[in-house]
């Protein structure tokens, strides 16, 4: 009897792993098509990139908004992983209050360094730009993007509150919102899409971003 249960559990684990691998493959295809085609990134185009039928894609992601939500969630998860690896600061994607700080609190300069380093990846910046453009024309995608940034701001707010418990909650949130607005807007300039990058601008940007977190 126990052998049958073990066999069933093993089969279930295998199916779960296979589903995870397929989901990852579909998200990889979605990112590639979003970067290459922007507003023309249809479910059909993404399914074609992944080498599957549209129905197979929709089994995992019924709508394009569902797919973009998953793409953004994975991007946030990766950002949090890089932050943990570099600074020791650990946060949970879906629970900003679940924050673990290394002894002595994380240096804001290190946090800002990790955040700005992500803008060194032109493919990642292009992905966000294309998603923003889609959100401007599609209400469902706009809702997904707003939720993504709500979580982003909440993570920053939790970090600010941990470092400055003497600051009122509303003030911490305003600081977090300003930080996200500054960093996300800077991506357009630093990537070369909307301007040219310079060492002086990078230095000023890092300085202002750090000040928003602690001063």
Automatic annotation (TrEMBL):
It comes from the Bacteria. Keywords: DNA-binding, Repressor, Transcription, Transcription regulation. SUPFAM superfamilies: Homeodomain-like, Tetracyclin repressor-like, C-terminal domain. It holds the Pfam family TetR_N. InterPro entries: BetI_C, Homeodomain-like_sf, HTH-type_TetR-like_transc_reg, HTH_TetR, Tet_transcr_reg_TetR-rel_C_sf. Residues 42-61 bind DNA. Residues 20-79 form the HTH tetR-type domain. This is TetR/AcrR family transcriptional regulator.
């Amino acid at each position: 009897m126990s052998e049958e249960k073990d066999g069933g559990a093993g089969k279930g684990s295998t199916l779960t792993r296979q589903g995870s691998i397929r989901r990852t493959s579909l998200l990889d295809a979605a990112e590639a098509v979003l970067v290459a085609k922007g507003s023309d990134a249809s479910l059909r185009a993404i399914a074609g990139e992944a080498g599957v039928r549209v129905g197979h894609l929709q089994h995992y992601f019924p709508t394009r908004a569902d797919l973009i939500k998953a793409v953004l969630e994975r991007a946030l998860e990766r950002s949090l992983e890089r932050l943990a690896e570099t600074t020791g600061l650990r946060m949970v994607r879906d629970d900003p209050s679940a924050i673990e700080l290394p002894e002595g609190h994380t240096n804001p300069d290190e946090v800002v360094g990790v955040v700005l380093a992500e803008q060194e990846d032109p493919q990642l910046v292009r992905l966000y730009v294309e998603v923003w453009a889609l959100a401007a024309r599609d209400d469902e995608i706009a809702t997904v993007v707003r939720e993504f940034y709500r979580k982003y701001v909440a993570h920053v707010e939790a970090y600010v509150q941990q470092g400055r418990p003497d600051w009122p909650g509303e003030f911490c949130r305003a600081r977090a919102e300003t930080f996200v607005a500054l960093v996300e807007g800077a991506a357009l300039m630093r990537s070369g899409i909307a301007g040219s990058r310079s060492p002086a601008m990078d230095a000023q940007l890092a300085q202002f971003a750090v000040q928003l977190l602690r001063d």
